[in-house]
Specification:
Elements: E1 14-19, H1 23-38, E2 42-43, E3 52-57, H2 64-74, H3 76-81, E4 86-90, H4 91-97, H5 100-104, E5 110-112, H6 120-130, E6 134-136, E7 157-161, E8 163-164, H7 175-178, E9 183-184, H8 187-199, E10 204-208, H9 225-233, E11 240-244, H10 253-258, E12 267-269, H11 277-283, H12 289-302, E13 307-314, H13 321-334, E14 338-343, H14 361-384, E15 390-398, E16 405-410, E17 415-419, E18 429-437, E19 442-446
Parallel strand pairs: 1-2, 1-3, 3-4, 4-5, 5-6, 7-10, 10-11, 12-13, 13-14, 17-19
Antiparallel strand pairs: 8-9, 15-16, 15-18, 16-17, 18-19
The structure holds 5'-deoxyadenosine and iron/sulfur cluster (SF4).
Iron/sulfur cluster is lined by residues 166, 168-170, 173, 175-176, 210-211, 247.
C-alpha cells in the first residue's frame, strides 16, 4: 500500500488525457472527459499540473506496450513532485495486456479497458481512498454508448460512434480482440447524438465504426447503414456527413445511392490492404482484387467528384515479389487521392502471427518506399487537377504556424490553405479558388 494522501477533498481535480491511435480512440477520450467532468473533475492540457493522467492507448501496430511505458516514464518527475498523482492506462493496450501492466510499471496506478470507461470516476475514487493500484478490465462487449456524457474537443466537426468492435478477424488485426465483437448502436440514439452536436454548434459529423457498412446487421429491429445515412441527412443544421471505415466486402450499391444525398460527402475510405488475391485470401479479407475494382468503378460511375483513400499493408507473411507487384499495379490503376501505408507488424494473438514466410525488415522497407513514391506522384497529380477550379471549403481555423493563413477542407476531405480575410470564421462554408495543388493539399484564395 502506498502513502496516498486523501486528495479527493481538493476539488475539482485536474485531469490530463493523452490519446494515441484512431478516431474511435479520440472519441473515447471525449467520453472519458465527459464522465469525469460530470463527476466534478476538470480537464487540463498541461500534464505537469494534473492530479490524474490518463493514457488512451492504441495497439494496432508494433511496440504498442513499450510506447506506453516510455510515455509514462516521462511523467516520473510529476509523480516525484506530487505523490497523489494517479496515472491510468486504458484503451486497447489496457484491454489486451491488463493486470501485467501494473507488474511491469510501478508508476502506473490504474489499468482499465475499452469497455469500462464510464466507471472511471469510481476507479479513481477507489484508488484515492484505498491507496491501492488496480486493474479493471471488463469483457470488450460490455460497453454501450447509451446516455454517456461527452465532453467534445471539437466545435464544428464532431465524431459519433455508430457501432463498436469487429467480426471480421482479418489475419493481421488485433481490433476484434481489443474491442470485441461487432455491436451496432440503436439508430435513435445515434440520431439524437447528431442533433446534440448541432445544438452545440457543430455542422459536420463523421460517423465512426470499424466496418460501417455492416451497421445494423444481426439486429432484427435495426435499419441498414444507407437508411441511417438517409435519416441523418434530414437533420437540420448538419451540413456535411462523413463516415469511416468502409469494408470493401460490404460496400453496396445501396450505399452508393445514399451517397448521392445532399449532405453526404463524396469521399470514401476503402482499405485495399493488398492487390494480390493470394494475400487477400491469407489476410481473410473476403474479397478479390477484381471485386474491389468493380466496386470502385461502380462508385466512380455514380458519384461525381468522388475522392477515394485507402490503407495498404506491405510485407504481409508470404508476400512474394509477384504479390507485391500486383499491389503496386493496383495502386497505380485505382489512383487514390491519398493512403495510409503500413509495414506489416506481428500482433501477438492474431492468426498471421503464426504464419510462416514472415518478410524481413529490409524488404518491407523497400516495398513501402516504392509504393510511397508512386502514391506521392499520384496525389500530386490529383491535387494539381484542382488548379483553376472553385471548391466549397469548410473553415477549420487558422494554421498553427502562420496565423494569417486559414485551413479548411473540401467535401472530398482535401486540406485547403488560403489567406484569411475579414469575417471568415470557423465552421463557415466558403468558395475557394484553387491556384496550386501540392502534396499536402491545395492552396487557394477566397473566390
Ligand atoms: N500491421 C500493419 N498494419 C496493420 N493495420 C492493422 N493491423 C496491422 C498490422 N498488424 C492497418 C490496416 C488497417 C489500418 C487501420 O491499420 O491497414 O486498415
Ligand atoms: Fe481489423 Fe479487419 Fe476489423 Fe478492420 S475489418 S478492424 S482490419 S479485423
Amino acid at each position: 500500500m502506498s502513502i496516498r494522501l486523501n486528495s479527493s477533498k481538493k476539488s475539482p481535480r485536474l485531469v490530463y488525457i493523452k490519446t494515441f491511435g484512431c478516431q474511435m480512440n479520440n472519441y473515447d477520450s471525449e467520453i472519458m472527459a465527459g464522465v469525469l467532468t460530470a463527476h466534478g473533475h476538470k480537464m487540463t492540457d498541461n500534464p505537469s499540473e494534473a492530479d490524474i493522467i490518463l493514457l488512451n492507448t492504441c495497439s494496432i501496430r508494433d511496440k504498442a506496450e513499450q510506447k506506453v511505458y516510455s510515455q509514462v516514464g516521462r511523467y516520473r518527475p510529476y509523480k516525484d513532485k506530487n505523490q497523489n498523482l494517479i496515472i491510468g492506462v486504458g484503451g486497447c493496450v489496457g484491454q489486451l495486456v491488463g493486470n501485467d501492466i501494473l507488474k511491469k510499471a510501478p508508476l502506473i496506478d490504474l489499468v482499465f479497458g475499452t469497455s469500462n470507461i464510464d466507471k472511471l470516476p469510481q476507479f479513481l475514487d477507489y484508488i484515492n481512498y484505498s491507496g491501492e493500484r488496480i486493474s479493471r478490465i471488463d469483457k470488450a462487449e460490455e460497453w454501450t454508448d447509451k446516455d454517456i456524457p461527452i465532453s467534445r474537443n471539437t466545435t464544428k466537426s464532431g465524431w459519433v460512434s455508430i457501432m463498436r468492435g469487429c467480426n471480421n478477424f482479418c489475419a493481421y488485426c488485433v481490433v476484434p480482440y481489443a474491442r470485441g465483437r461487432e455491436r451496432s448502436r440503436a439508430h435513435q440514439d445515434i440520431l439524437k447524438e447528431i442533433e446534440e452536436l448541432v445544438r452545440s454548434g457543430h455542422s459536420e459529423v463523421t460517423l465512426l465504426g470499424q466496418n460501417v457498412n455492416s451497421y445494423g446487421k444481426g439486429k432484427e429491429d435495426e435499419i441498414s447503414f444507407p437508411q441511417l445515412l438517409r435519416l441523418a441527412n434530414q437533420i437540420e443544421g448538419i451540413e456535411r456527413i462523413r463516415f469511416v471505415t468502409s469494408h470493401p466486402k460490404d460496400f453496396s450499391p445501396e450505399l452508393v445511392e445514399a451517397m448521392k444525398l445532399e449532405k453526404i460527402c463524396e469521399t470514401i475510405h476503402l482499405p485495399l490492404q493488398s492487390g494480390s488475391d493470394h494475400i487477400l485470401n491469407r489476410m481473410n479479407r473476403g474479397y478479390t482484387a477484381t471485386q474491389y475494382r468493380s466496386k470502385v468503378d461502380m462508385a466512380r460511375r455514380e458519384i461525381a467528384g468522388l475522392t477515394i483513400t485507402t490503407d495498404i499493408i506491405v510485407g504481409f507473411p508470404g508476400e512474394t515479389e509477384e504479390d507485391f507487384a500486383k499491389t503496386r499495379d493496383m495502386v497505380k490503376e485505382i489512383g487514390y487521392d491519398s493512403m495510409f501505408l503500413f509495414k506489416y507488424s506481428v500482433r501477438p494473438g492474431t492468426a498471421a502471427a503464426d504464419f510462416d514466410q514472415q518478410i524481413d525488415e529490409k524488404t518491407k522497407q523497400k516495398r513501402l518506399e516504392e509504393i510511397l513514391n508512386i502514391q506521392n506522384q499520384i496525389t500530386l497529380e490529383k491535387n494539381r487537377a484542382y488548379e483553376g477550379k472553385v471548391v466549397e471549403v469548410m473553415v477549420e481555423g487558422p494554421s498553427q504556424d502562420k496565423k494569417d493563413i486559414m485551413i479548411g477542407k473540401t467535401r472530398g476531405n482535401k486540406v485547403v490553405l488560403f489567406p484569411s480575410a475579414d469575417g471568415i470564421r470557423e465552421g463557415d462554408l466558403i468558395k475557394i479558388k484553387i491556384d496550386k495543388g501540392r502534396l499536402y493539399g491545395l492552396d487557394g484564395e477566397v473566390a
